[in-house]
Write a structure and sequence with these properties.
Helices cover 33% and strands 24% of the residues. The strands form four sheets. Strands 1-7-6-4-5 form a five-stranded mixed sheet, with helices on both faces. Strands 8-13-12-11 form a four-stranded mixed sheet, sandwiched between helices. The chain has a two-stranded antiparallel ribbon with strand order 2-3. The chain is α/β, with parallel strands linked by helices. The structure holds coenzyme A. Coenzyme A (COA) binds next to α2, α6, α8 and β12.
């Protein structure tokens, strides 16, 4: 058994004020509230005001997270920001956050793994804590996905929304608690089904690339849907089996919020009962790397979900890449 793990000590979030409802979208593209709710479970999402970037959401989420724990920014050793919509190509959003919150003693970086960005970041930070190199890490998921959504494309614009969530990870010295295990996967063969072709080194911004709308998210929804269900349920079932658990042992399941049907199918295959699943996709849509920490925040803070020492928390995600994974945590207090 590991002598040192990482546990979640605190959570924070930021949600833009502006709401984009299904009825707003009905005026923008050929769609209906009924279609969106039935196919996705989404009723509204948040949109960040123009001129602001990823760090403008990551910073308040990080500050709330630290304040809840009573930890000063100087005590943070590491900042990882999971995002596909950084403020700029470089410097990293982690550097911007470090500067804006005054985390003088931290190092850090951005991590790009689409909607799995938070889980990949959490797992990476936990390993640095386990190694003893890091004692305290801010793990943030923040995406202003609205900046790369084509609001004339009904197959993508109804799904996504902006937001940021943060957790403070700290070392846990009691064996058998904290982040016990994670299972992460990538399959670049799925890359073409969910991507932004322009804006990188292969298709730098040009008048032509703008005219071709290459800076927007394109998606083959059906392919992504199928891969999400099989990927998320596979890692959820396997991480439970590997750790000698079943879905019945899980107290709280926090899945990535991409589509209510994907969440239900994953939970069904992992035998996790409905009342244990955190779902807030109706209010925020798919917030990419922010979705898991936003759902965790909702459970712990807004719904006052009282996770007790020893309770099992399962998280799982699927995203562009393809990327997917699960993480299993045994609660050690918050
Ligand atoms: N409103 C109304 N009709 C729409 C629509 C919208 N917003 N978007 C697509 N449609 C239409 C399609 O054009 C299609 O019409 P057709 O049959 O005449 O061609 C029909 O609805 C069915 O499209 P389909 O793509 O099969 O629907 P679906 O049930 O698969 O739902 C998604 C579409 C996008 C909601 C679903 O595939 C999905 O959630 N995929 C995964 C997306 C995802 O999770 N992405 C992020 C990964 S992290």
């Amino acid at each position: 058994m590991k002598q040192r793990t990482a546990y979640i000590r605190s959570v924070g979030r930021f949600l833009p004020e502006r709401k984009l409802t299904n009825s707003d979208l009905e005026k923008m593209v050929e769609t209906s509230d009924d279609w969106i709710v039935t196919r996705t479970g989404i009723r509204e999402r948040r949109i960040l005001e123009p001129g602001l970037g990823c760090s403008h959401m990551a910073v308040p989420a990080a500050i709330e997270c630290l304040e809840r724990a009573g930890v000063s920014p100087e005590e943070v050793d590491l900042i990882i920001v999971g995002t596909v919509t950084p403020d700029m190509l470089f410097p990293s959003t982690a550097c911007l956050v470090q500067d804006k919150i005054g985390a003088k003693n931290a190092w850090g970086f951005d991590l790009s793994a689409g909607c799995s960005g938070f889980l990949f970041s959490l797992s990476t930070a936990s390993q640095l804590i386990e190694s003893g190199k890091v004692n305290r890490a801010l793990v943030i998921g923040s995406d202003v996905i609205s900046t790369i959504i084509d609001y004339t494309d009904r197959s993508t614009c109804v799904i996504f929304g902006d937001g940021a969530g943060a957790v403070l990870l700290e070392a846990c010295d009691e064996p058998g608690f904290g982040l016990l295990d994670f299972m992460l996967k990538i399959d670049g063969g799925g890359g073409e089904y969910l991507c932004v072709r322009g804006g990188g080194s292969r298709i730098p911004p040009s008048h032509e690339s703008i005219d071709n709308r290459e800076h927007y998210v394109t998606q083959d929804g059906r392919q992504v849907f199928k891969a999400s269900v099989s990927g998320m349920s596979d890692v959820s079932v396997r991480i439970l089996e590997k750790n000698g658990l079943t879905g019945k042992d899980i107290t709280l399941f926090v899945p990535h919020q991409a589509n209510k049907r994907i969440i239900d199918a994953t939970a069904e295959r992992a035998h996790i009962e409905e009342e244990k699943i955190v779902v807030n996709i109706d209010k925020y849509g798919n917030t990419v790397a922010a979705s898991i920490p936003l759902a965790l925040y909702e459970a712990l803070v807004e719904r006052d979900y009282d996770l007790k020492k020893g309770d099992y928390l399962l998280m799982s995600a699927f995203g562009a890449g393809f990327t997917w994974g699960s993480a299993l945590m045994r609660w050690w207090g918050c």
